[in-house]
Amino acid sequence: MIEFARDTYRYRELIWALALKELRVRYKRSLLGFFWALLNPALLMIVLTLVFGTIMRFSIDHYAVFLLSMLLPWTFFSQAMSYSVDSVVGNGPLLKKIYVAKLVFPVAAIVSNVVNFLLSLIPLALLIVLLRFPLHWTWVYLPVPMLGLFLFTQGAAFFFATANVFYRDVSHIVQILLSAWFYFSPIIYSLDFIPEKYRWLFRLNPMLYVLNGFRLSIYYGQLPSLYSAALSLGCGIAALMIGFSIFRHYQNRFIYYI
């Protein structure tokens, strides 16, 4: 953890430059450019509001807010993983020409998606106001689950970026894993909908704890217990420690496989 924090700070300018480059490439030749970072979640919210609020009426009040409170952080996680898994391999030509700390590439991939995620909270807040849903004061707690989410995502990014260097199939496996993981996480449903005898299985999913604080703060207007908050941060820290340890152990071999 100390080495990760030290190198991230040391190469902070390069990380930021790579993150901005990623964003520019993503929106290159787009008429609306960075505005898509706001427009994408806004359009998603409008569609979900029409579908689940008008056409398919769920028993959950304000289902669109219920869903989006966890769908937006999940979307960040999913997109960040998709970009970061190829971050080292994709920058192979650069690594062969000059020496650069290899961690900058997975970190920059996450940072670029952090920018998109933070911007997506703006249309979410506007939608909540338009739907006359309470804008709870517990939004001030959001930096805590955000930190847990960012740490967890970064740890997973280190792990899968490392694996993808040695086995290119990993980038395809990650997409399948994310699809299965989405339905295994209580995003489109509440954990209360799961029969009691199966809930222990869902509680093995770390994303349950990583994402729980978002729904509590945004939808329910509640603060999690200290135990729940500790689990959220604990999952993030544990993932980062494991992922970075694996990345650091194998990083000197990357040059032979990219």
Structure description:
By secondary structure, this protein is an all-alpha fold. It has one domain. The protein contains twelve helices and no strands. It is globular and about 55 Å long. It starts with a helix and ends in an 8-residue tail after the last helix. The model has no long low-confidence stretch (mean pLDDT 85).
Describe the secondary structure blueprint for this structure.
Layout: H1 2-10, H2 12-26, H3 36-55, H4 63-84, H5 87-90, H6 92-97, H7 104-130, H8 143-166, H9 170-184, H10 196-202, H11 206-220, H12 226-250
Summarize the structure.
This protein has 258 residues and is mostly helical. It has helices at residues 2-10, 12-26, 36-55, 63-84, 87-90, 92-97, 104-130, 143-166, 170-184, 196-202, 206-220, 226-250.
Helix content: over 70%
User: In what range is the share of β-strand residues?
Assistant: under 5%
The number of distinct structural domains comes to 1
Helix count?
A: 12
Q: What brief labels describe this structure?
A:
258 residues, mainly alpha, 12 helices, globular
